[in-house]
Amino acid sequence: MSDRIAVAKTYKLFVGGAFPRSESGRTYQVTTAEGAFLANAAQGSRKDARDAVGAARKAFGSWSNATAYNRGQVIYRIAEMMEARRAQFVELVAESEGIKASKAQVAVDTAIDRIVHFAGWTDKIAAVFGGANPVAGPFFSFSTPEPTGVVAVIAPEEDSLLGLISVVLPAIVSGNAVVVIASQSRPVPAVTFAEVLATSDLPGGVVNIITGSAAEIAPWLASHGDVNALELTGAEPELRTALEQAAAGTVKRVHYSHGTPDFFGDPGTARMRAFLETKTVWHPTGAVSLSGGGSY
Amino acid sequence: MSTTNVQDDSQNRPARNRAGQDVTGELTRASAGILPAHLADATVDESSLKRFLAGLPGVDPVGLEQRSAGLATRSIKRASKLQAIDLAISMVDLTTLEGADTPGKVKSLAAKARRPDPDVPETPTVAAVCVYPDMVATAAAALAGTDIGIASVATAFPSGRSSLQIKIADTKLAIDAGATEVDMVIDRGAFLSGNVGKVFDEIATIKGVCGDTRLKVILETGELGTYDNVRKASWLALLAGGDFIKTSTGKISPAATLPVTQLMLTAVRDWFDETGELRAVKPAGGIRNTKDAIRYLVMVHEVAGPQWLDPFLFRFGASSLLNDLLMQRRTQLSGHYSGPNYVTVD
User: Fold this and answer.
1) Is A223–B336 a contact, with Cβ atoms under 8 angstroms apart?
2) Which domains are seen in chain B, by residue range?
3) Interface of B with A in 305-334 (CB under 8 A)
């Protein structure tokens, strides 16, 4: 077997449900934690980010209008597809992060469980974060959460799979569409996750994965007029500050974990809530009873 | 052939009116009196017209498409791109041709034509708005006091399937309501069945009705089938006095394409070389983004010549194109990408 030449894979981007090369034609070598050659990855550019935002915007309409029940089914399907490729993910995560297989196994299992967790959230968001408001007037007032729109995400650099899933899934649960810049040094689990997404029922463009330098690509996303929110948990502090400033020009929502995020712990709801807009409806119910007797 | 005096033309030119031609047709012919002999001969009667069109060189589709594709690879950046965007905006015939058009929609279109990007008031205005004849009065009122043209489709648009009387009445309706440009459709059925004389007469007659109002002749290239037919129809329209040759109605696919537009630009260029007259071209339908528009501008420059980079001689028939041009213009000015939320919905 030692004579055999290994088939090294050249990974591409994941934009609009397809796997295009970078518009720039650039690639870079990805190594294992020990420094051995692992694969070639596409080095995304400004224009790839632009195309990804276009794809996300196109997908946003139908994804956000899909029923919560349907979104839950689709996201659960991602977990199903990932479960089938569990062994491959364990190997890739172990190689990419330089950790033991047993530890990688825990990370992959947690990641898959996390997808199931968020699949369950789709039809509960409206009930938990919306509801009827008690108002002093002849109105029935209720609030309902709606997705923010296109969310640009910088995935954590270290935690290549669980980190990625922990920042992407909370955004798409409520109907947002995502453009995510994968870990630059450990992109292989992310692009393999793209292959999972492509074979699940997720509509093309709901998640777009770009590999390359966040420092190069993210500023274009932060200032982009058609991006509605940023998830910057994966950004270095200096870059994060610059991106927050750039985002102010087009008034975006910005969210990131304060301190070091623990992706193995309880995912909580903060990240889901960060990419929701609350719509409140006031519906007239008739005249107020003058006697104050509540005689409706 | 340089432009010659129209007055003394009658002495040395053979009568180009075909027997039975009506008066409005004659007017057109008189204004086309500067034609060189071989073009003039082509319009003597139907058989000579057929002979002339049959004598046009055949189109090499591979070469044509290759040249179009080659020109489309030109990269236009920064200051040149901004200039191209501004030029493209000023060439847009902002169009709404829907059964669901309302006076409100036409008014909002007119408002957009006057001030395409209210945040950036120095954005150029569009060349014209293009509507159905019954909406011309609404558009004219909304555009009063501007130099924005009011183009109206006419002659039983988009199929052209009606009698000449109806087509004349349709054209008059548009002009009386205030149209400054008329977009007519040719009778594709007549053209395809070889009845080119009928097509010629219709164009000439409608041009006669139009008088000074500029006439755009829609060839509907998507229905003509071959590049050879596009070339023939282009020459036919030019001979009959069309001020513009326009690719499509926008109602059928394929609409405007680069190769077809290249053929038409070649025709107006050849027409200029032979007669000294500048005729215009309008691709319409299917041009949705800035990149496409700039490709067309490159082609205009390379195939027809820089003279045609002028809203008088080249137009885009489009509706969604304008928003993309405005977004790209904003991107060029602000240094970051813009989005559809920053331009008006139409």
Assistant:
1) yes
2) 60-334 (3.20.20.70)
3) 327, 330
Is-catalytic flag, B246? yes
CA of B334 to nearest chain A CA: how many angstroms apart? 10
Cβ of B338 within 8 Å of Cβ of A225? The answer is yes
Q: B183, B187, B201, B292: which one is catalytic? A: B183
Helix B227-239 to helix B196-210 angle (10° resolution) is 40
- How far is residue B346's CA from residue B332's CA, in Å, rounded to a whole number? 23
* CA pair distance B248, B255, nearest whole angstrom: 5
Nearest chain B residue to A227 by CA: give it.
Answer: B339
- Chains A, B: CB contacts under 8 A, how many? 29
CA A269 – CA B117 distance, rounded (Å): 40
Domains of chain A as residue ranges with CATH: 27-32+43-284 (3.40.605.10)
Note whether A9 and A177 are within 8 A (CB). Answer: no
CB B69 within 8 A of CB B45: no
Q: Which of B243, B246, B292, B324 is catalytic?
A: B246
pTM: 0.87
Which 8-state DSSP code applies to residue A15?
Answer: B
Cα-based torsion angle of the residue sequence A148, A154, A155, A158 in order, rounded to the nearest 10 degrees = -150
Q: Is B273 a catalytic residue?
A: no
Tokens of A71: 């979104």
Question: CA of B291, closest CA in chain A: separation in Å?
Answer: 13
Q: Would you state the structure tokens that stand for residue B341, as one six-digit string?
A: 């939320």
- One digit per residue, pLDDT tens: chain B, 346 residues? 344 343 433 333 333 333 333 434 333 343 445 689 989 999 999 999 999 999 999 999 999 999 999 999 999 998 999 999 999 999 999 999 999 999 999 999 999 999 999 999 999 999 999 999 999 999 999 999 999 999 999 999 999 999 999 999 999 999 999 999 999 999 999 999 999 999 999 999 999 999 999 999 999 999 999 999 999 999 999 999 999 999 999 999 999 999 999 999 999 999 999 999 999 999 999 999 999 999 999 999 999 999 999 999 999 999 999 999 999 999 999 999 999 889 988 7
DSSP H stretches of helix in chain B: 9-12, 23-31, 37-42, 46-54, 61-71, 78-90, 103-114, 136-142, 164-176, 188-192, 196-210, 221-224, 227-239, 258-275, 290-299, 320-334
Q: What is the ipTM of this complex?
A: 0.84
With contact defined as beta carbons under 8 Å apart, do B151 and B181 qualify? Answer: yes
Measure the CA–CA gap between A130 and A70, rounded to whole angstroms. Answer: 19
d(CA B105, CA A67) in angstroms, rounded, equals 33
Residues 217-256 of B with CB under 8 A from A: none
Residues of A within 8 A of B339 (CB-CB) are: 57, 224-227
How many angstroms separate the CA atoms of A171 and A202, rounded? Answer: 14
Between CA A160 and CA A182 the distance in angstroms is 8
Closest to A220 (Cβ–Cβ): which among B330, B337, B340?
A: B337
Record the tokens describing residue A137, joined without a space.
Answer: 């007037």
Active site residue B81: no
- Give Cβ neighbours of residue B240 (< 8 Å, ≥ 6 apart): B28, B43, B199, B200, B201, B203, B204, B207, B217
Can you give the length of chain A in residues? 296
- For chain A, how many helices (H) and strands (E)? 10, 10
